Amino acid sequence: MASAAPSAPVAAPPVTALATPVTGTGDNGSFAGTFTPTKFGTQGKDLVATGLLTGTVSDSSGATVGTVTRTVSMPVTIAAVTCEVLNLVLGPLHLDLLGLVIDLNRVNLVITAVQAPGNLLGNLLCAITHLLDGTPTAGGLAALLNAILAVLGRL
């Protein structure tokens, strides 16, 4: 659910490359448009994205009823996280074991853990891998995402 934010000016111009399609249907019609984030913040312990929602509202027959352009805030969820557990690179290997010759070309072994609900081993290995990293707060993530938006806005 999107909620309307106060009509204060948005912190930065939208980075149009980050526009995300937004669609929805209801009993009386539908909405199709885009959401372009302009800043990130927190509501309690949750991370939220504030940005520009633009689109078209249509009735149940498909006829355009109106357009929407407004600043809204939406909750942000973090998708599955991957953690590199091991990246082992072995160069070429030549072994001569009493007449048994073994030649091995370059080997690159990468083990990655995927953190998501139900991935018990992936969750455990990611937790161990990041044991000393500290847990980022929603405010810390918002600050990092705002810095990324600022850099993208200058491109």
From TrEMBL:
Lineage: Bacteria, Bacillati, Actinomycetota, Actinomycetes, Micromonosporales
Protein name: Uncharacterized protein
Superkingdom to which the source organism belongs: Bacteria
